[in-house]
Amino acid sequence: MAYTILRGGRVLDIAAGTADFADILIEDDTIREIGLAGLAAPEDAAEISAARRLLHPGLVNAHTHGNGNLAKGMGDRWTLELLLTAAPWINDNRNAEDKYLSTQLGAVEMVLKGCTACYDLSFEWPAPSSEGLALAGKAYADVGMRAVVAPMVADRSFYEAIPGLHDALPLALRDKVATLRLPSAEATLAGIRTALREWRFDRGQVRPAVAPTIPHHCSDGFILGCAELAREFDVGLHSHVAESKVQAVAGIRLYGRSQTAHLDALGVLGPHFTVAHGVWLDEDDMARLGDHGASVAHNPGSNMRLGSGLADARAMLERRVNLGIGTDGANCADNQNMYEAMRLASFVSKVQGPDWRRWLMTREAALAATEGSARALGFGGRIGRLAPGYKADIVMLDLDHPNWLPFNDPVNQLVHTEDGTAVASVMIGGRLVVDNHKLLTVDLGRLRDRVAAARERLAAANIDNRRLYEALEPVVGSYCPGLALAPYHVHRYGARLE
Ligand SMILES: [Zn+2]
Questions:
Q1: Which of 73, 159, 176, 201 is the most buried (most CB within 10 A)?
Q2: What is the pTM of this model?
């Protein structure tokens, strides 16, 4: 038994809106007791001073993509559909080193910015591999971060998935995109099964899940296969649902009903199911998710960055949807800053209407980014709160930083003021990963050199993929916005095309 005691800090209780002075006793990786200054501790307890620190539960990123970190800043005016068009350019030709580095780079950024766990929809072009997933898992384990790593998969290419897009392409480009076809559903499902069976990480720290990427990029049989694997291995299921209007319209065209109604009819919704984005959910969709105990990973930064729209978090909460908050991948975020994600979740809620009573409160945004996200990850009741029995995933903010001068309100300032620059130390599972601004688990200089070398190599290896993107951009970039011009009402009438 190893004990640690954090003395002299202010301990944030998000729900209560308080940050009273208290000591925290940690046994191994778990919080045992929180009590008044001078709390009794075993003699051999390691003592850490938390004086002038605000202690808050580690933020939990409900939606990201580890593969995106080597692609940050590669695009500017990208819709979701242009980002998907760029996928071979920004993801292809990755070797084992690249796969590990991209994930590790994101993990490093997250812990330095107060995030201690994430749900990573890890993408390998053209299909996931046991080796690639193990490299992603190792990247998190090496940084000392918690994660859910879900292979992001499909059995239809983007050009097969968007109604009419293939036929809109000039003949020469049709031949080119034919090479982007994905492996068969059977082959991909068999690969995921192997990866799940061979998973070698402690599931309390790094666990697997399954991510059929976007419903209409997957045949129904493939979605059911993914759901079956999730059930068999008792892991989560995560999909991008109603992210862009193009997706929502494509869903209606293909299914004659919303994507969510279709998933419900397939029987795959449940407490283990997480919808990423949900910008274009209608009220019935939200009620379906809420009734099934499902989660939405709300990614306001990505939604604005890709022009996807503004998700209605208040309407989701009203229908008992479990709300988590994420950054999305660095290829469309373009950072991994959960303070920013919380702040944007608050702001996005506030621009949707004049009735301020429907706006998200900072408390709600902070709860979503901690307990709500934790539940989406399958870590509900174990992380996301500073309380006895919870894992000791604790961020220590410097109260002498300008962000906290003066100290007016801990939750308002956490969500609306803090930007990650006051993060002093980060503990995950009772282990200090960041100590007074210094990352203890990864050599940042070596990471920098390896990332620079990977960038050089990938830029050269993906020149043809970049040219293909440039040829496709005008076609996809005009066809898809045209599809999105279809009148599509989500709030007043339920999802339907007119
Ligand atoms: Zn995503």
A1: 159
A2: 0.97
